[in-house]
Amino acid sequence: MNWDWNAVRDFMPLFWDGLLVTLQALVLGSLISFTLGLVWALLMRTPTRWVQWPVGIVTEFVRDTPLLVQLFCLFYVLPEWGLTLSAMTTGVVAIGLHYSTYTMQVYRAGIEAVPAGQWEAATALNLSRNRTWRAVILPQAVRRVVPALGNYVIAMLKDTPMLMAITVLEMLGRARLFSQQHFQFTEPLTVIGVAFVLVSSLASFLLRTLERRLVR
Amino acid sequence: MTSGLWELVLKGIWTTVQLLVFSALLGAAVAFAVGIARTGRRWVVRFLAGCYTEIFRGTSALVMIFWVFFVLPPAFGWQLVPMWAGTLALGLTYGAYGAEIVRGALGAVEPAQREGGVALGFTPGQRLRKILLPQAVPEMIPPFCNLLIELLKGTALVSVMGMGDLAFSGNLVRLALQESAEIYTYVLLIYFVIAFLLTRVMRGLENHLKAGLR
C-alpha cells in the first residue's frame, strides 16, 4: 500500500467544505426530527382513533423502508407535483422525516415514564391540558430522552453520506469528486472515514456532558 | 409497466434478498465472535474487540462500502465481485452493532448461572455453549430483529455502486418510464413487505427458542 501525503494535502480544502455541509445537514436534520418526532408522539396520544391510525401506519412505513429510496423519492417526485426544493433542503427534510419516526418512539417512552402521580397532581391543581403538558409532563419527559435522542444524532451523522446520491456534496461526495479527478481513492476515503469516527466520538462526548448537566 | 421492466424489478428483489441473507450471515458470525471476545478474560482480546466495534460503528456504512469497493483493490490487490464486496461492507458494519447486542445479552445472564457452571467443573467453552448462549440467544432476538430491518435498509446503499439491487432497478425503471411517484411507491412497498415478513419470521423464531428453554 502506498500512501501519498500530497493527495491528503490537496484534498484538505475540499474536505473542509464537505465537513461544513455534513454538519449543516446534521444540525438541520436533527432539529426537524426532534420537532416532528414530538409532534407524532403527541398526535399518537390524542384520544381520536382517526388521528392515531394514519399517523401509526405512516410512521411505521417510513421507519421500515430505506432512507436512500426515500431520498430519491422526494428528490424526483416532489418536482413532478410542482414543488421544487433545492437538493440540500430535500435531503434535510428526508433525513428529518425518516428519523422523526424513531425519535417519536423515544418521546413516547419518555412520556410514558412520567409517573402517574404527576398527571394526578396536575389534575388536582386544576391545570389546563395545555399547561399540564407544557409545565409538568414535557419538561420531565424530554429530560429523560436526551441520551436516546443523542444516539439518533450519531445515526443521522452516519447517514448524511447518502445525500451524495442526490447531488449534495458532503464529505463523501467531495471525496468521490476528488478521487475521480486524481485517481487516488485511498487517501480521501480514509481521511473522511477517520473524520466520521472523530466527529461521532466528539458528538457522543458532548452528548454525555449535556446528559450529566441535565440529570443533575 | 411492461413485463420486461417487472422482470428487472424482480431481479433487483432477488439481488437484495441475496445480499441481505449473505450479509446477515456474515454479520451474525462477526457479532458472535466480537461480542464473545468482548467478554473475554484477556484484556488484549477485549481491547481489540472494542476497537473493532468503535471503528465500524463510528464510520458510515456508505463510507465503508466506498472503501471496500475503491480502496481494497489498489491497496491490497483484491478485486471482489460486487456481491461479495457489498456483503463484506454490510456484514462487517452491522456485525459491529450486533456485537454489542451479543455482549449485552451475555452480560444479562444471571451471575449465578455462570457460577453454577464453575461449580460443576465446566470449562469456559462448555459454560458458554451449554449455559450462557442458550439463555442469552432468545434475549438477543428482538434487538437482532431491529438490526435485520436496518440491514435490509442498508442493502439499498450498494445501489450507489451500481449493483443491481431493488433500489437500483427502481431507478432504472424510473428513467425508462419518467414516472417517479408510481415506481417509488412500488419500491417502498416491496421493502416494507420484506421488512414485515422478516419481523414475522423473527417473532416465530423467538417463540420457538423461548419454548425450548422451558
Based on the model shown, name its key terms.
heterodimer, A: 216 residues, mainly alpha, flat, B: 214 residues, 8 helices
Q: Helicity of chain B, in percent?
A: over 70%
Task: Describe the global form of chain B.
Answer: flat
Total of DSSP H or I helical runs spanning 4+ residues of chain B: 8
Describe the sheet with the most strands of chain A: none
For the secondary structure, the number of strands of chain B is 0
Mean pLDDT of chain A: 90
Shape of chain A: flat
Query: What series of H and E elements makes up the topology of chain A?
Result: HHHHHHHH
**Kindly, what is the distance between the CA atoms of the first and last residues of chain A, rounded to a whole number of angstroms?**
50 Å
Can you tell me the residue ranges of chain B where pLDDT is under 50 for at least 5 consecutive residues?
A: none
Would you give an account of this structure?
The complex is a heterodimer of chains A (216) and B (214). Chain A is mainly alpha-helical. In chain A, 82% of the residues lie in helices and 0% in strands. Chain A starts with a helix and ends with a helix. The mean pLDDT of chain A is 90. With 214 residues, chain B is mainly alpha-helical. Chain B is 85% helix and 0% strand. Chain B has 8 helices and no strands. Chain B is flat, with a radius of gyration of 20 Å. The N and C termini of chain B lie far apart (52 Å). The model of chain B has no long low-confidence stretch (mean pLDDT 90). The interface between A and B is large, with 37 and 39 residues.
